[in-house]
Amino acid sequence: MGGVLAVLGIYRAFPLVHGSQGCANYVKNTLAKHFKEPVEIATTGFYEISAIYGASDIIESSIKNILENRNPDLIITMTTGLSEITGEDIQRELKRITENIHEDYASNNGTYFVGVSTPSYKGTHIDGYNNTLKEIIKTITEKNKNKNKELGKDTLKSDKINIIPGFVNPGDVKEIKSILRKMNIYYRLLTDITTLDRPLRLPKERFPKCEATVRDIEESPNSKSTLSFGMEGIDGAKYLEDLGVPSYNLKFPIGIENTDNFIRTLSNISGQEIPESLWEDRGYAIDAIVDGNDVLRNKRVAIFGDPDKVIGLTNFAFEMGMEVVAVLSNTETSYFISEIKKISMENNGKITLFEGSDLYQLHNYIKRRPVDIIIGDYRGRYIANEERIPLLRVGFPIVDRYGYHRKPILGYNGALRITEEIINLLIESSENYENLSIL
Fold it and tell me: How far apart are CA 97 and CA 127, in angstroms?
């Protein structure tokens, strides 16, 4: 899932899932329901005979089919639990296959072929995104370096900043772009998932347009620095750091303090002043928090989702004067627990932690210790409906509402939106409106 999203965020890139039809259809169906856009994913159609005799032939035929029909700049072959369990060596197979393809398809010598191990039984979509992006960066930069060496080309450093947005929505990427443009910063997006939020126009785009291209990844080692968020893309940033590109790993710019840090870091790296327009955006977000203080203050909240989003939302909830009492992450990380404990101590809070857990455990906690609002993806609706608690839908996936992929949670505008939505949800859910002092 995460690997496919990383690929779809690169212009003229095409994902190939090495597994059964069901493996690809599950990913395609979930992404299409969330983004409300058609999603193109190829599959090798792994069957029983492939598990017994090997799948080299179907990988090769699938890649040739993509080349003949789409001719992309980049094809990424990702494994599944099925193909991994049979011991398929995707790197070895791709090396042999691409040598044959370059002989048969001379016009496709410029196409990059990347193989990534993404078994469904290990890690989550966050790991898939992180691992896939690293392999893409590694393969492209290595081959481009060798190509430049053969041609005798010199590489020139630029003032651009590499940005790895992470597993976020198109609305969040647009917010990041808006901040960068307001600060007059030159940048390279290494993934840009606005490909899944395109206008409906004719003629239909063969590849949805976005600002992340293979050329950008080729030139990413020449950038001034790389900026990533949490664990979502950090391995790609570290790889570029080994090539001499300074790396800055921040919390997601969720809420006031985290966005301040993001913008301050951009200013320090680029030397650009923070423009008045961003101070205005910040002021609107703070004004909304102050206006809704009577509703927000001391409300108990439970938050679940991807670890770095949960960390950012926990920070922001305390900024709004709320009391975070429980957090849950389904992705185990080395720092999630320590970061949440640090936030809890800084705010004199007492947060119950669930790491690598599921919503059943969170639901049992809420039954014993009721909360005023839940923040997380659409799957929290089962708890919300049973316990009659409002749910603020954020993150991935959200399949039961329309337009949420366009709504940012990052930056000051994201903070403004989250604040207003929480306030309105709390008001709507109150059985006794007279208890709310703003009414």
Answer: 27
Note whether 92 and 31 are within 8 A (CB). Answer: no
- Give the angle subtended at the CA of 46 by the CAs of 205 and 50, to the nearest 5°: 145
Query: Which residues on adjacent β-strands are paired with residue 226?
Result: 162, 247
User: Residue 238 to residues 28, 134, 167: CA-CA distances in angstroms?
Assistant: 30, 9, 17
Q: Shortest CA distance to 135 belongs to which of 15, 307, 11? A: 15
Both tokens of residue 33?
Answer: 């329901």
Query: Could you identify the residue written with the tokens 């849950």?
Result: 328
Q: Model's pTM, two decimal places?
A: 0.92
Return the pLDDT at 83: 76
| Parallel/antiparallel/unpaired status of strands 74-79 and 13-18 | parallel
Compute CA distances 218 → 144, 155, 212, 283, whole Å.
6, 11, 11, 39
- pLDDT tens per residue across span 245-295: 999 999 999 999 999 999 999 999 999 999 999 999 999 999 999 999 999
**422, 320, 300, 314: which is closest to 368 by C-alpha?**
300
Residue 377 in tokens = 């993806």
Residue 99 belongs to what H/E stretch? helix 90-104
49/71 Cα distance (integer angstroms): 29
Convert 310-320 to b/e letters by CB count within 10 Å (16 or more is b): bbbbbbbbbbb
Establish whether the linkage from the previous residue to 119 is cis, with ω within 30° of 0.
no
Per-residue pLDDT, averaged over 214-222, amounts to: 95
Spell out a b/e string for 163-193, using b for 16 or more CB atoms within 10 Å of the CB, else e: bbbbbbbbbbbbbbbbbbebbebebbbbbbb
**Alpha-carbon span 110 to 218, nearest angstrom:** 12
Structural Rg of the chain based on CA atoms: 23
Q: 3-class DSSP state for residue 61?
A: helix
Kind and range of the H or E run holding 38: none
SS3 246: coil
Give 344-411 as a DSSP string.
Answer: HHHTT--PEEEES--HHHHHHHHHHS--SEEEESGGGHHHHHHHT--EEE-SS---SSSSGGGS--SH
